[in-house]
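Appendix B.2, paired examples.
Example (i):
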Amino acid sequence: MKPTLLVAALLGLLPATAHAQGLVSLELFRVEWTVRTDSWVKPGIDGYVYNSSGYRVSNVRLRVETLDGANQPISERFTWVYGNIDHRGRAYFVLPPPPPGGTYRITVVSCDPVAREAP
């Protein structure tokens, strides 16, 4: 296959991939987390991502924001939750401690739908 035809064929796949992201509403995910404060444990954040969408998902990406006293972000970083999360399932994640600040906000910003699952 000629290189130009290969590129055209691959570009033809992009809309389908981008459309697949729109299948899953990110509002259907819930994140629970706690900051580790025990002196005998390395500092960090432990948590779970809960999936209420109708899809098994993978490559879940989280935004971790450090907030000041007025709930305004003063820093942000991104991390991944590895593995699949089934419909009505959850996945565990561990993060190193974010920069010191008042509070933190952790939200799901993207994921890849794997398969639609029966309710």
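Example (ii):
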Amino acid sequence: MNTELKQSRIGLVRAVALLVVKLLIGAGRDLVLTPVVLAAAALDFILLKSQPPRFFRKLLRFGQWSDEYIDTWSYGREPHEAPRENVEALLARVEDVVRDPKQGTRHARVLKRWAERQMVRARQKITPSSTGKDLDPQP
């Protein structure tokens, strides 16, 4: 079998597998967020007399960030575009750990620290500013 053809097939299988994983991650996120969004909207509705909506807006920002992070359709970009730091990078790191058992422990520690940093950044992004500038102005 032609080596180039084999590499193309492996690349296609890998791309399809990553797309399916990303689709599953997005679906899981949507299943979890649906009741949370409804609860946040209800809470904002109840508190509307005393404060502007904030919980629903936090979830909207989190949803937007998670869409960008999952980056489901990244393989549709041009090859020369710079890769993004997203779930694809995380999956590539996991793949490296699995493929290289000698370096696996060290890579696992590095991967764990990276994932922890990503979680801290995610929490910081969904925390509203204390000035309230990120809320829509009242008409």
